[in-house]
Amino acid sequence: MNNDLVGLLASLIPTPRCHFLMTGYTPLTVERQVNMIRKTTVLDVMRRLLQTKNVMVSSYARTKEASQAKYISILNIIQGEVDPTQVHESLQRIRERKLVNFID
């Protein structure tokens, strides 16, 4: 599907003027927490990726008005054996719970 960075970006960025990617990473763990491994769901991983404390750049989304921030698109790369229906259902739950705002 997306074999290179250009192909990946083309599907995420609909207009040339909106070209800044914001990176998030989860789980961020310290060495002493490595022994405390727990099973996480796709929804849990996606929800944590969208938390402002896991965003790796300073932006409007990290301010106190984070509820006003809007997303154009989201790409989550989830490793491991994941059923695509879980990803779809998780995204639907995120939209229903209004955890993030997408542009209209």
UniProtKB/TrEMBL annotation:
<dbReference type="InterPro" id="IPR002454">
    <property type="entry name" value="Gamma_tubulin"/>
</dbReference>
<keyword id="KW-0206">Cytoskeleton</keyword>
<comment type="similarity">
    <text>Belongs to the tubulin family.</text>
</comment>
<dbReference type="InterPro" id="IPR000217">
    <property type="entry name" value="Tubulin"/>
</dbReference>
<dbReference type="GO" id="GO:0005874">
    <property type="term" value="C:microtubule"/>
</dbReference>
<keyword id="KW-0342">GTP-binding</keyword>
<comment type="function">
    <text>Tubulin is the major constituent of microtubules. The gamma chain is found at microtubule organizing centers (MTOC) such as the spindle poles, suggesting that it is involved in the minus-end nucleation of microtubule assembly.</text>
</comment>
<dbReference type="GO" id="GO:0007020">
    <property type="term" value="P:microtubule nucleation"/>
</dbReference>
<keyword id="KW-0547">Nucleotide-binding</keyword>
<protein>
    <recommendedName>
        <fullName>Tubulin/FtsZ 2-layer sandwich domain-containing protein</fullName>
    </recommendedName>
</protein>
<dbReference type="InterPro" id="IPR018316">
    <property type="entry name" value="Tubulin/FtsZ_2-layer-sand-dom"/>
</dbReference>
<feature type="domain" description="Tubulin/FtsZ 2-layer sandwich">
    <location>
        <begin position="16"/>
        <end position="104"/>
    </location>
</feature>
<dbReference type="Pfam" id="PF03953">
    <property type="entry name" value="Tubulin_C"/>
</dbReference>
<keyword id="KW-0963">Cytoplasm</keyword>
<dbReference type="GO" id="GO:0005525">
    <property type="term" value="F:GTP binding"/>
</dbReference>
<dbReference type="GO" id="GO:0031122">
    <property type="term" value="P:cytoplasmic microtubule organization"/>
</dbReference>
<dbReference type="InterPro" id="IPR008280">
    <property type="entry name" value="Tub_FtsZ_C"/>
</dbReference>
<dbReference type="InterPro" id="IPR037103">
    <property type="entry name" value="Tubulin/FtsZ-like_C"/>
</dbReference>
<keyword id="KW-0493">Microtubule</keyword>
<dbReference type="GO" id="GO:0000930">
    <property type="term" value="C:gamma-tubulin complex"/>
</dbReference>
